[in-house]
């Protein structure tokens, strides 16, 4: 197991260096589907090596419970108040609620199929209750897929650290 972890970490590092060395300043890192999988596996292995327990949703969204919450779990139709930071798998911050809201908290309705949120984040939020803090590892298939969106390139596994401050039931 340790040898597999070491091999995955070394390979992921080599891939990341090879890709990043070809970039000009301001270019986004673009991975293939195969590179995304290798980088994600190495990232997950590194979390396990640090002693984190990783759970998985039905659609392969990985999550680490950083802080337990209490009460009912979020569901479609509830209004949620969250704080979040979104990172690329290489640790670069691409979005945060602190960039958009003076108190760092975003309020929105968890709308299920009508949602404008990425599928992976929405699915992960339903695993949370008030006061919980999770780290989500969301494969591109549950985010922006093979096309990307805005500043997010194709085949990007996204990392979200999310704090659920409150749930207002529907």
UniProtKB/TrEMBL annotation:
InterPro entries per the UniProt record, alphabetical: PPIase_dom_sf, PPIase_FKBP_dom
Alphabetically ordered keywords of this record: Isomerase, Rotamase, Signal
Reactions listed under catalytic activity: [protein]-peptidylproline (omega=180) = [protein]-peptidylproline (omega=0)
MF annotations from Gene Ontology: peptidyl-prolyl cis-trans isomerase activity
Domain of life: Bacteria
EC number: 5.2.1.8
Residue intervals of the PPIase FKBP-type domain: 77-168
First and last residue of the signal peptide: 1-18
Family, per entry: Belongs to the FKBP-type PPIase family.
Record-given protein name: Peptidyl-prolyl cis-trans isomerase
Organism: Mariniphaga anaerophila
